[in-house]
Amino acid sequence: MLSMEKAGKEGACQPSPSQNHWNLAMDIKRVKDYIYWLYYQYLLITCSYALEPWEQSMFHTIMVTVFAMVVYTAYVFVPIHVRLAFEFFSQIFGVQPDSTVSVVN
């Protein structure tokens, strides 16, 4: 009898397939609402909601272009600068880099 009660409780905790679908739909709606909210915040911060439609498209194009250039520049140049800074500070604090040529006696 104990195992039947356990099985009944376990079955009650499991959501039905329709509840899973409903939860997924609510999650998608929540994400969609959040994206709309972020876009609204972007419009408010940049004051681009007051622009004409053609001005908005030009403004958004320029913003996307600038953002893409910043991301590309960071992708290309930040790793190089991090490596150079690491080598610089390694030399300052006395950590000697391993030689690529091994000494054989």
UniProtKB/TrEMBL annotation:
The keyword Endoplasmic reticulum applies. It is a multi-pass membrane protein. Pathway: Lipid metabolism; sphingolipid metabolism; Sphingolipid metabolism. InterPro entries: Ser_palmitoyltrfase_ssu-like. Coiled coil: none annotated. The keyword Transmembrane applies. One of its GO terms (biological process) is sphingolipid metabolic process. It is found in: Endoplasmic reticulum membrane. Component of the serine palmitoyltransferase multisubunit enzyme (SPT) that catalyzes the initial and rate-limiting step in sphingolipid biosynthesis by condensing L-serine and activated acyl-CoA (most commonly palmitoyl-CoA) to form long-chain bases. The SPT complex is composed of SPTLC1, SPTLC2 or SPTLC3 and SPTSSA or SPTSSB. Within this complex, the heterodimer consisting of SPTLC1 and SPTLC2/SPTLC3 forms the catalytic core. Within the SPT complex, SPTSSB stimulates the catalytic activity and plays a role in substrate specificity. This is Serine palmitoyltransferase small subunit B. It comes from Gallus gallus (Chicken).
